Structures are given as structure tokens and as C-alpha cells.
Amino acid sequence: MKTQINGTDILELGFPEGKIIGIALKINSKRNGFTRDEMIANFKNVLETPENYIDDKIFSKLAIALIEKSNEKPEDFIALNQNPNAYSAYGLDHIEDGARKQMEVAMKLPVTVAGALMPDAHQGYGLPIGGVLATKNAIIPYGVGVDIGCRMALSVYDIPEDFYFENEAKFKKELIANSIFGAGHGFHGQYKSDHAVLENDTFNMNPFVKNLKDKAWSQLGSSGGGNHFVEFGIMEFAQDDAVLKIPKGKYVALLTHSGSRGMGATIAGHYTKIAKDECKLPEVAKNLAYLDMNSQLGQEYWMAMNLAGDYASACHEIIHNKMERALGATILAKVENHHNFAWKEIWNGEEVIVHRKGATPAGKGVMGIIPGSMTAPGFLVRGKGEENAINSASHGAGRQMSRTQAIKNITKTEMKSILQDHGVTLIGAGLDEAPMAYKDINQVMEAQQDLVDVVAKFTPKLVRMADDGSKED
Q1: Distance from the Cα of residue 18 to its chain's centroid
Q2: Quick one: which of 425, 431, 363, 373 has its CA closest to 399?
Q3: Bridge-partner residues for 342, per DSSP?
Q4: How far apart are CA 340 and CA 359, in angstroms?
Q5: pTM, full prediction
Q6: pLDDT tens digits for 21-48?
Q7: How far apart are CA 362 and CA 336, in angstroms?
């Protein structure tokens, strides 16, 4: 049987649109003896190193077309810097080649000042997930990411550990009642929440952003799909923390992870397309297209990005407020940090735009939350302000399997077994979010001891995620 691969599959590998897709599909249509996975692997290798396939009897035409495409230069072509600065990397031995190569390309942008790769890094679009990039007067929409302002939020309650285990049914009831998941899902009528973010004047900046307000209102206080979650767990402080004023002990805590929902994703797509039209980079760097911060378009994206970040924060605030009222608990500490964003910061004495795509701000004394997986611990941390890391740390454990690989290689029985072994109750989630799909969080934390101090450890106990296999919309 012929290998079933379509144009979308080829595009998702990173091939450029146009005649090259046709060449690849024609190669695929011939009976070359490859399985689907083998053909995908071959296509990926040709894309990464076409020069190695110039004389190949099957893939030479595709390789030559890719080389020719990479040498095309429009009139307003922006050349890459062929002698870039080195970037800092943490836990490099456990970071895939794809993420490293993406970081190497990002360092060649003419606007790049510095870069760093976090130990949870893996390949993404444009800047790798776990990539930190400081630029001069330029903002990269795909350097921020699709889920703008995606963040962690933590509430530590005055509830002792024993109370959770004695009342697990109540916690489960409140978790189901006060959270909602899935791409496209939202609230209607009397169930909609109100928040000051909806009065933000940036919604009136232009018709495009204004048209996002109704959907934003509907999804306000929801958590979306993909790897987003709302979970209860036990937060252990091994010693007193004077800054947070929390004594040594174990407390029930609520941890949430989600971003700016459909609004943020739509903003990302819109301004990425504009950036690609405005900023003609070579094919290898096209997803790193940037906007000048002095331009109207650059300022538009900057304002829309900040609006999406405020909106994401509002979603978490609503969830945490609902849960606080439902439990009748007192909050001892609240910590929140975001990881798909760009900030104006001073680095080496000059103002730069720091993009943290799946990386946690970790300036001196800055609090952050670094989750593991649904069975692995997460950590409440305090940043050390490491300049080589551009004041950053990882945003989690990071994936070691793609969603497709996880679904293919992990069984429901294996997932159920590991949940039982760790005493975790799961509501929703598919095999693509199985704990085995993620790197070892302890290994990741060991690789960033110079970046953060651990303040407390969070152990998940009751986890809710989207149950429809959806990604963010």
C-alpha cells in the first residue's frame, strides 16, 4: 500500500509552501518501499540537510529545490548574521538537536543581542520552546508564541495536608464545578464572569482586536486545551520562608496553568502573518520574522500582546477566587508568573526586548513556579538573577515525546498504572499528556541550580485537564 502522507503533513514538517510540496508528494506517491514513518523521517532529514541528498536517486530533486529556495532573495531580503554570538545553554546533553538548531538560527538575526536555552527546551515554531532571546528594538510574534501570556498561578491555603485526604470528594466536586476546559469552550449568559480587563481601552485599538472582545468575555475564567490544567496538591515547605511568611509544613495548594485562550492565539496568528510580510527573512528563519518597535505595527502587536497577558492573568484570578470562596479557605500566599511573553529589560546596560517562549522569569528574588507533570513534583522557586541565562529558568519539565509519539507509544493501561502508583486522581486528559511524555523534572532542576533556589515542592493529587484531546484555539 502507498504511504499515506498529504500536503498538510509536509507543511507541518516545516517545508515551504508552493511547488516543493508537490515535489515531495510526487516522491511519496511512488512505491519506494518506505513505511509512512520512514518516509516522514526521510523528508525531515532532507529538509534539515538537503546538501546530503543532492545525488540521492529518490530525493535529489527535492533537495535541489530546497537549496534553490533557500537562496531566493527578494528585493527587501534581510540577510542573517553569519558570525553570531554564542548562546548560553543549560542541560544541553538532554536537549534535542532540533531545538539547538532553531536557537542557532535565532542567534543569527540581525536584531539579536543575546540568547539562552533552558534545560526543558524542545523544538517549536521559530524560537524553540525553552528559548530566551534578547533583541534590540524588535519584537518577534513567534518568539512570544501562540498562547500569549501562558502562565502558572499558585494559591497556598491554610489547609493542612490531612484535611485534603479526609475530604478528597469535596475537593473533586469543587474542581469540577469551578473549572472548564477545551478549545472553544466558554461560559454563557449568567455564567459569564466580569473583570476589569474587559474595560481595557486596548480593545478599541483597532477593529481586529475589538472583534475579539466577545469571545474573550465568553472564555474568561476558562482553561483551554492542550497541556493546561487546574489541580490540587500538597505544597511542602522544608523550612520556614521569611519572605512569604509561611512556616515549615505541608499545605493544600491550588496550581493552574493556562493562557490567553482563543484571543491570544488569534492575535499571534494575525501579527505573525503581518511580520512575515514585512520582514523578508531567509526560509530557515521565516518563523522568526520581527516587527520594528518604532513602527505602528510593532506598537500594535506590543499593546495586543500585553492585553492578552492581562487577560490570561484575569482568567487565573477568576478560577482562584471561585475556588477560595468554594473552600472557605484563607490564602497564605499567591504566586504567579508567565512564560510566553516579551519584556523590556536592561541587559548589559542597554534596553532590550527579552522573549521568553516557554521560559520563566528568574531575576534576583523573583518568584516562579516550575511544574513537572501530572505525577511528578513541581517547584516554587526564587530566581538568582543569572545574567548568562538572561534572568530566566525553565517553565516545566519539557516534552521528550511529541503528542503523536505519545499517543502511539503509551497505552491507557500504562498511564492508569503510573497514576495509581503516585496516588493521583485524573479528570480528563489524553495519552498525549501522559507523564512519560515529559522529561525528568529532577534532571531539569539539577541543570538549573545556578538559576533558581527551590523554596517549596508541590506534589499533584487531583488533576483536571481537557478531555477532548484539543489544542488551544
Answers
A1: 29
A2: 373
A3: 355
A4: 7
A5: 0.84
A6: 999 999 988 867 888 889 999 999 999 8
A7: 12
